[in-house]
Design a protein that fits this description.
Strand content of chain A: 5-15%
Number of helices of chain A: 16
CATH topology of the largest domain in chain B: Rossmann fold
Largest interface: A-B, 29 and 38 residues
Number of strands of chain A: 8
Number of helices of chain B: 9
Radius of gyration of chain B: 18 Å
Strand order of the largest sheet of chain A: 3-4-5-8
Number of domains of chain A: 2
Largest sheet of chain B: 6 strands, mixed
Order of helices and strands of chain B: EEEHEHEHHHEHEHEEHH
Radius of gyration of chain A: 32 Å
CATH class of the largest domain in chain B: Alpha Beta
Distance between the termini of chain A: 119 Å
Largest sheet of chain A: 4 strands, mixed
Shape of chain B: globular
CATH architecture of the largest domain in chain B: 3-Layer(aba) Sandwich
Number of strands of chain B: 9
Structural class of chain A: mainly alpha
Helix content of chain B: 25-40%
Order of helices and strands of chain A: HHHHHHHHHHEEEEHEEEEHHHHH
Strand order of the largest sheet of chain B: 5-6-7-3-8-9
Distance between the termini of chain B: 33 Å
Oligomer: heterodimer
CATH superfamily of the largest domain in chain B: P-loop containing nucleotide triphosphate hydrolases
Number of domains of chain B: 2
Structural class of chain B: alpha/beta
Chain lengths: 519, 247
Amino acid sequence: MTTTAATAATAATAVTAAGRARVACDSGRVTARLLWLELRHNAMLWILPAAVLLFWFTTYRTAMALPPLWNVRAATFQSGAVVDFITPVVGAAAVIGTRQARRRTTDLVSITSLPRSARLLVTWAATSCWALAGYLICLAATYGETAREASWGGPLWWPAVVAATSVPAFAALGLAAGTLVPSRFTAPVAAVVAFFVLALSTELIVGSQSYWQVLPLVTGPWDTGKDPGVATFYPYVPDLSIAQVLFGGGLTVAALAAIGLSGGRSWRRPRAVAAAAATCGVLMAGTAVALAGTGRLDAHGMIEIPALHDAASDRPLRFTPVCSGTAIPVCLNPAYAGYLPATVAALAPVVREIAGLPFAPTKISQVAAVYAQGPGNSVEISQEALPSPSGSRLLGMLLPDQLLGPPLSVAQFEANVRANTGPSVLAYVVGAGPHASAAQVAVWTALMNAAGRPPGAQPSGSEQVGNAQGTEQPAAALDPAVLAATRRFAALPVSARRAWLVRNLAALRAGHITLGQLP
Amino acid sequence: MNVEITRVTRRFGRTMAVRGITLTAGPGVLGLLGPNGAGKTTLLRMMATVVPPSSGRMRLLDRDPGLYRPRQEIRRRLGYLPQSLGYYPGFTIGEFVEYFALLKEVPPARMRTAVSAAIERVELGDQAKARLRTLSGGMLRRVGIAQAIVNEPDLLLLDEPTAGLDPEQRVAFRALLRDLGQHATVVVSTHLVEDVGAACARVALMDRGTIVYTGTPAELTARGVGHSSGDAPLERGYSAVLAAARS
């Protein structure tokens, strides 16, 4: 008897399980078919070419004009894609949100048994699918071309994830706007408002602890923007990206729940789920905003959020530098390999002058930039100290592109290296610093002149190459005695100058040589 | 009874659209007659669960539409054609009917058959791939009927279903109504008394938010004997009952 009952119970359980599986399967098929219909008739499908075209025109061309560095291209992509896709997505979603009211199908669809929330979720999913499809095409084009051009490193996925998360989030906001305010003006107004809110709210970002940097178009410290100096020597720090993804997720949940809460106002219905989801969404978004507010600029140029930070991100990346075969090798991070010929060309005259001298550097290596938050949105950049074993003479340098400023052409880049790094290298050899002796200044200036620099520059004594510009002084400012000694020393034949330096460089560096002792 | 309505009222602000109506209906076709503003559409919208009653008790298909789950069950077995049919111009007839079949949770296994059958029943089978924007008013009305019957409803509510149909289509539609009424409760709101006479087993006449008459079309016709207003016997009955209700 007991066995029979147990068998019956087992059979009943099996039937129940089979029934549930069938219902789930049916539900999946219904959803898939509904999604297909929504995909076929979704406004985003028609707006998509415009969005992709906009992306190509404003973002892709900009990104491709920048150096093929993953950090620069990924940041450009994130900001650009967000701006390019948000407006069409919000507009399209709002159009679909107002569809029932515009087409007078509200009564027809509101009495169907499929829950309103499920129906709108499918609509939102269809809109997001098309937008994401277009987005992925843009991502593939940008990252594909970057992969082809980049000399080192791999795709930075966090910026892509942030932008991708913002697409469904803004689709949900647009759908909510269209559903809650079903007017013919809702879609254009929502699209324009989304664009301006997104673009103008970045004006409110001050410093690295701004809550506003949670917005998805922010890729790092707002004023450094697309900085080629980050994520090459150290890993990409995803803290801000994580907060932005959380924010996007929260917005999505809150917006979709708001649609659910607004439905069936006059019927008594369980709205607890929608209310709970809305609360969750708001909490998620709020948490993300709060986290963004605790951010700070880390030494490697990215926003670090203590609650999200992984200490592993602070460990330097391992890489094999690319080096020139010159007398004094010039070595760059492999990500910047494309810069090597221009850098070597710019430093060649200086290297020619100092190669073989006792205190000449054995290698000139590119180092990481070190960032510090200044007042407001200002950021100070210096160069990281080069870890070097005692006795070795490694000289660190920053490339101009690691500093803030517009991207440089090759000619501008070479001129910048010549103007800033060259003097620093010579100052390193001569030992010229802020308190350099008159003889050191004269020798340094003479070597600069010999290396093809216009006469009259003076060593800044700063190792901060980025600050070297503007510290040079015109020849008129030099003491006449120093100027005379400079001219005298520069007029020496190369072999005589080198021979003197080989003999006297140690004394010169120690400050024991006077102007009168210069040949 | 598929429809049990007891002292149901519906207010829109200060306007009382339906005033304490009591009505029951089982399988068969019930014609809802009445002048403009009588409250027919509001009554149908309440029965279609579009709007809840302001007061009174309503049970549809033996369920309380005021509760969420029973309402969902009612909606699964409900067909509704509103007076003003909205539609999506870019959809084809097939897609539009399938869309509503999906929203009404017609089982996927029966989906294709149900959609085809509904379209065939309104005689649009050869145009299933035509976009709705290309259809005439009468054809759109038939599409509306197709979406209403695609789930083989037990309660079918049709608001002015024959508006825009040509005479031949109206004859065919009446036959369809009679066929549907064999198993389901069909409530048809109309101005056209000849539709009621031809297709309805019962008729309810509404005026100023209340039901002033219920009976068979034959009984309504009998009420018109000796009444001069109206061209047809049923119209004379209709006019006589209205006049009596207003006197």
